[in-house]
Write a structure and sequence with these properties.
Layout: E1 2-3, E2 18-22, H1 38-51, E3 55-58, H2 86-98, E4 102-107, H3 117-125, E5 137-138, E6 161-165, E7 171-176, H4 191-205, E8 211-214, H5 234-238, H6 252-270, E9 275-278, H7 285-289, E10 299-302, H8 304-307, H9 312-325, E11 334-336, H10 345-348, H11 358-373, E12 377-381, H12 402-407, H13 454-459, H14 464-476, E13 486-488, E14 495-500, E15 504-509, E16 515-516, E17 525-526, E18 534-535, E19 539-544
Parallel strand pairs: 2-3, 2-12, 3-4, 4-8, 8-9, 9-10, 10-11, 11-12
Antiparallel strand pairs: 1-13, 5-7, 6-7, 13-14, 14-15, 15-19, 16-18, 17-19
Length: about 550
Amino acid sequence: MRHSAPTLSPHRWWRDAVIYQVYVRSFLDSTGDGIGDLAGVRTGLPYLKKLGVDGIWLSPFYPSPQHDHGYDVADYREVDPVFGDLGEFGRLVADAHRLGVKVLLDIVPNHCSSEHAWFREALATGPGSEARARFHFAEGRGPGGDVPPNNWHAMFGGPAWTRVTEPDGTPGQWYLHLFTPEQPDLNWRNPETGAHFEDVLRFWLDRGVDGFRIDVAAGLFKHPELPDSPDPEADARTRDSVNPLAWNRPEVHEVWRTWRAVCEEYTARDGRERLLVGEVSVPTAREHAQYVRPDELHQAFFFDLLGAPWDADAFRKVISEAMQDIAGTGSTVTWVLNNHDQVRTVTRYGESGTEGSGLGAARARAAALLMLALPGAAYIYQGEELGLPEVVDLPDEVLTDPIFRRTGSRARIRDGCRVPLPWSGHASPFGFTSGAEGAKPWLPQPGWFAEHATDRALADTRSFWHLYRDGLQLRRGLPQLGEGTLHWLESTPGVLAFVRGDGLVCAVNFASRPVPAPVSGAPLLSSGPCPTGVLPGSTAAWWISDGTTP
């Protein structure tokens, strides 16, 4: 089966870009307080340029009480002093652009912080006020209104409603928060909300950013009547946006048309295209495709590849659906294997979840080559290029994830993929912080991080880092990354193989046993030792077709 996307011209940078996700507080600390900052990101730009990425996506650095590490925003048009200031941000953008690196910001429109000026005003003014109309305030049910307005549960555990104390000291209305009580959901049916965020976009676009990653892009609108859900715990159980009364409402598409028009306005001024990429979690690739229609988001993360088990048939299914439904809109698929919310691939693909297992590392390397070979764009999460496993044994007392605070369960916590990066040396803080001896990163780094430190990775040509760097260099020499076709090749069970329109052949052996290679001759690049004519188990390789490949 052959999959192709419409031919579009001229080339648009985002269609085949590789973007590096910078989790700012864990990237590099320049001040010695144990928390990464914008100056640290600026220091790391030459490293990222050497790796070969096209741009960076910065996690939220806005003023925030940090109940959800910046995804509870108190001011959308400022920099939290822990990360720097607007001057430092300007220097970061200027340095990135001098290196040819794009800069994307993380924007959080579904909810804000309970310390945002709007929410403080809402608490102070009472029921029926214009300030409360910016959020979802409602009267409770039952005697005295002591039962929440509906039965929804928050994604991070517990009820999705919190009751407030009114200005006169009496128990009052309830407000909706689909994540934590410190993150009240904004009411997007109120025109003030849309106008506010349009101003926010323009504020940062005027400061030179190249686009935005949009948090919870399938959110924003709720059913206008806020009825009970037949499965109120579905979001918390799956930790995904599956409640159709709260997510993926049809009204959201008009917001993305408005935001796209703002970006196109700036693009028209100087010819520098601005990008909107959404965090879109919806049930099917076909629904996903609705977000990337020509007048909406440019791209949306395709999480089905990240969620697929290590199985050739499962990977083929999700790739085929993406190429058919998403690429068919005129967009390109945005592939991702890791991010700040998910267990890292080295651990996820390992046996019994063992951190750093040899099998998990081999599979993670193979998956990386597969992702980089697929037509479209790709996002890399910091540390992925170092082969970092998940840190699975952080003590309870250091955990900061609100999921743990609200549920007491370690099953879905995200701290393990957010531990600060190791840059150099043999002991913590591994060059992450420039503070005095004894300075501690905000999350503890295990001793085995030394095996994955950047200085060691750069010196070892067999490292994850060199695999990523070599893969990115080869991508640049391929003419059809964004617009390429994909044709599946016949292969033995457990093997996934395809050829692209530009002649690149990629094969991945998901099984443990070696199989004959689909192309004669030595591969251009492989995720592990790959003798000519053989594709070992848990290995991926690239070739250029000799013209005889079917």
